[in-house]
Amino acid sequence: MFAYIIRRCLATIPVMAIVALFVFSLLYIAPGDPAAVIAGDQATPADVERIRASLGLDRPFLVRFGEWVFRIIQGDLGVSIFTNLPVTRMIAQRIEPTLSLMVVTLILAVTIAVPMGVIAAWKSGSWIDRAVMGFAVLGFSVPVFVVGYLLAYWFALELDWFPVQGYTPFERGFGPWISNLVLPAIALGGVYIALIARITRATMLEVLQQDYIRTARAKGANQATMLFVHALKNAAVPIVTVIGIGVALLIGGAVVTESVFAIPGLGRLTVDAILRRDYPVIQGVILMFSFVYVLVNLLIDLSYTLFDPRIRY
Amino acid sequence: MTIERRSLFKVAGASALAAGGLGSLAAPALGQGAAGGASARTLRFVPQANLANFDPIWGTQYVVRNAGMLVWDTLYGLDENLAPQRQMVEQEEVSADGLTWTFKLREGLKFHDNTPVTSKDVVASLARWAVRDPMGQMIRAIQQELVAVDDRSFRWVLKEPYPKMRLALGKNNAPCSFIMPERIARTDPFQQITEYVGSGPFRFVREEWVPGARAVFQKFDGYVPRAEPASWMSGGKRAMVDRVEWVVMPDPATAAAALQNGEVDWWENPISDLVPLLKRNRNINIDIADPLGNIGSFRMNHLHAPFNDVRARRAVLMALSQEDYMRALVGDSSDLWKSLPSFFTPGTPLYTEAGGDLLKGRRDYDAAKKLLAETGYKGEPITLVVAQDQPITKAFGDVSADLLKRIGMNVDFVATDWGTVGSRRALKTPPSQGGWHIFHSWHAGADCINPAAYTALRANGDGAWFGWPKSDAVEAARNEWFAAPNLEAEKAAVAKMNKEAMEFGLYAPTGFFLSYQAWRKNVSGVVKAPIPFFWGVTKS
């Protein structure tokens, strides 16, 4: 197991290198010019050119790439072209809201979706099953921002239960922290709940056909034990896999959710950076997201051993 | 069926409105910034854009200039009559030949680090500003010397008279001549400063700055306001709240809801779709933000056919319907726009319609087609580069595509984002090789009240704004304005400039438009101005 973890960790190095090369090259060939954005709309072409030169954007690709890689190896993601702040500091400023949103969404989604899927499989073909599947289709179909606006309308403006927007750091207390996250987490979690519920239902349906379930039934095991202990554990591997894959969905959805609820997280940082062509920030954030994704996949792989003793690394 | 974002704004706005009554009874929800202080001494403001950097000389975006106004003071300041008034300056003397300007600073000026403002700071600040600002560059070109005489006096000696000196030092166009401590002002004008110390009525709380989310300004107790009442950038800049928090909200519907729910106090630029809904909320005031408005721009590339021929440019002007552009932008709100047969801001002293007949009356597509045919145009693709992420340029681009087709042009519509337009418009290569024929922009009316900061109306070829128009007649008229000794002479010069620029088809103005600002009724002192001014604003 330990050797496997080491091997997987080492394997992240070429993955990250490819991501780095890809991100840098893509940004290099992408149209757009941060110098023009900095100079403002009234600036003359000569001003823009001088700013570009001062930022080093007029230097050859290989020189810029080499310098960037050299800094990355030292753990330095560079400095934002616009804010003049280190990218690591900007990420640090923004990581808590995004992480909070993702964790709350994840907890909410798993807590709701897994029982939904299990019950839908158990009551397969019934109105409960259809209702769950209908909800799943809705979750897939309705965009996050629509759900966001509707939630803000009912629960923030009509009922005044939650704030419309913003984020309160955890250090100011659990209550204020969670009150800012409930609506965004529900909005963001819709697709995720739908995905997990569908996979849970499908895998549970398969497992419930197995002989050992029939045996458990014949031996008089109670329904809940049979569903949530015997069946769910054996259905867990694909469910956990989907939860892991869904992290990418959460990262993508966070961009929209953070805009709708004015949460100062990494999603908004990324969008702002892309619109302004703030290359160091874009590169830093994408590298970080890639690393997180690789890490999540590693954790998912390791978790398989917990659910299926036959799996060994 | 398709769901349009604009419709969703309305749903969101309507929902916010429906809850307006409840919102007024309920305590404000805890939102961003609220935890930091929901008291009446904290004013929460939603700016037009993100404050991504904070060097008002290095970066000339309006949002940086607006934030800069809180932190840095200027030697002069434009008042609501568009006249420069003394601000940091106590008095000035001009020699009889107009070549030597001697300025004296008023007493008690202090930076936020509690060091006194001296003439050395002013000299360094002006030297940095003059590299980047068009008027500053003109002064620099005729500068003999700029020196500190003593702690409170400095002298600017010129080789030629420059009658617009007070305007240059007090104008509101970016970059403004903000005064910084000498150690900061010595930074290369093309490099960003790293310390934000000013002498204005508010100090910047750097440790609370989260670019893209929040910027905080704290009242500076050491600021000594002038005795006169405040008038835009001039007079007594009295901070009436302890703290101003800028809360960045990229989504207009969220900003509308937050304003209605009392989570923010003042919104700089509500979109016109939401204005009717906000107007009906009894807790919210809504009014024109900037009486000087904006001028829409249809910018043609003078380097490449067919727009290197004045007849093609005039063909566009004679077919262009400003009403179409304005209605695409502001909808049915007739009070938000007007036709503009001019390049200058309506309602200001130098406004003129000389030469503007081409933009008036019935639009004549047949005549335009005929004129275009005379240029030898034979249906080659016309590259129209349109930024889709800016509501203004997106609306203009759609109208232009239709207009160009009507006059027989083969439109190559390039839908892109503003960042790409920003770089592509700088390319002089032919449109078929990555260049362009047309792009849209808009100019703040405050920049178009006179030729001083009107970069887009320069016609000096390679040195001109994108499109690189070259017209000696336009430039000559511009120079006449700079040399004009009085208002009548200025008016004559501007009328001549407008006429020449129209005949030359320098660019096509697509109309004059205004926008709103909205604030809660417990906030008072909000003024109509080109910049949101925070002095004199109170919150109960």
UniProtKB/TrEMBL annotation, chain A:
Pfam families: BPD_transp_1, BPD_transp_1_N. The keyword Membrane applies. SUPFAM superfamilies: MetI-like (SSF161098). InterPro entries: BPD_transp_1_N (IPR045621), MetI-like (IPR000515), MetI-like_sf (IPR035906). This is Peptide ABC transporter. The lineage of its organism: Bacteria, Pseudomonadati, Pseudomonadota, Alphaproteobacteria, Acetobacterales. GO terms for molecular function: dipeptide transmembrane transporter activity. Residues 95-304 form the ABC transmembrane type-1 domain. GO terms for cellular component: plasma membrane. Signal peptide: none annotated. Belongs to the binding-protein-dependent transport system permease family. It is a multi-pass membrane protein. Keywords: Cell membrane, Membrane, Transmembrane, Transmembrane helix, Transport. It comes from Teichococcus deserti. Coiled coil: none annotated. The chain crosses the membrane at residues 9-30, 99-122, 134-157, 177-197, 235-261, 281-307. It is found in: Cell membrane.
